[in-house]
Design a protein that fits this description.
RNaseH_domain; 9 helices; 247 residues; RNaseH_sf; alpha+beta; three-stranded antiparallel beta sheet; two-stranded parallel ribbon; RNA-DNA hybrid ribonuclease activity
Length: 247
């Protein structure tokens, strides 16, 4: 195509490293068909005064590939003219709307972040929301953290939601009256096993207490591990003989 157009010097670009190295002689051509192509190209380039082949990235060679395919489909390029037009797309127009107002919507957020302050209207509205969810028509007096999660699921959210929900549940009078009492001991219990009743006993001495009849102020207590049966005896003094008599 360049020879038909009368070109004497040509600079070509390709995205194939293999073709570039084969033209430069660094790579060896093994296939017979590629050898024929290489000889054909060298024969054409020898008819020119200068020829250079440069490798470029494939992303930069898309237009050249299209032109090469277009040229290869032409039988005689000297009788045809190719017109290339570059269409410039105009950027989309963006309309800017200016909002004017005396109250900045960011001010309540800045007041909370900087001063930890919520407006009175927001506090009153948040209390109404928590009241309706916690003890309204469909309220079930749920716990504080559950109340906060339920409020956020239905679309309500403010910076102190979790804190307010926990405080609301703690201040609810009905929750305090009807909440289940926790009977879990403050210390871990130690399990004691017994195979049958009255096979293993636990004995301890309790006291001293206020002096009772016959100067008794101690208690000797025995508990059966299996049945929890209790035996107790008041004693005035703790001696070996008194313990033996009790047993």
């Amino acid at each position: 195509m360049a020879l038909d157009a009368g070109a004497e010097n040509l600079i070509a670009y390709t995205d194939s490293q293999l073709i570039t190295k084969q033209m430069e002689g660094e790579y060896e051509v093994n296939e017979e068909r590629m050898k024929d192509y290489l000889q054909k190209i060298k024969g054409l380039t020898n008819r020119m005064n200068g020829f250079q082949l440069h490798q470029i990235p494939r992303t930069e060679n898309a237009k050249d590939d299209y032109l090469a395919k277009l040229a290869s489909s032409m039988m005689n390029c000297s009788t045809r003219n190719i017109t290339v037009r570059t269409l410039m797309k105009s950027p989309p127009e963006h309309s800017i709307m200016t909002i004017q107002g005396e109250i900045d919507w960011r001010k309540p957020l800045l007041d909370y972040l900087e001063k930890d302050i919520l407006s009175p209207d927001e506090k009153e509205e948040s209390r109404d929301i928590l009241h309706e969810i916690h003890e309204g028509d469909c309220g079930s007096h749920i716990a504080g953290w559950v109340l906060a999660n339920k409020a956020s699921r239905v679309g309500y959210l403010w910076p102190t939601l979790k804190k307010d929900a926990i405080s609301w549940a703690k201040e609810c009078n009905k929750c305090q009256q009807h909440a289940p009492l926790i009977h879990i001991p403050t210390e871990l219990l130690q399990a004691m096993s017994s195979p049958c009743p009255f096979s293993q006993w636990g004995i301890d001495i309790v006291g001293p207490f206020s002096i009772a009849a016959e100067q008794c102020k101690f208690h000797l207590v025995a508990v059966d591990y299996f049945s929890k049966w209790i035996e107790a005896k008041p004693l005035a003094r703790i001696t070996e003989n008194e313990v033996i008599k009790f047993l």
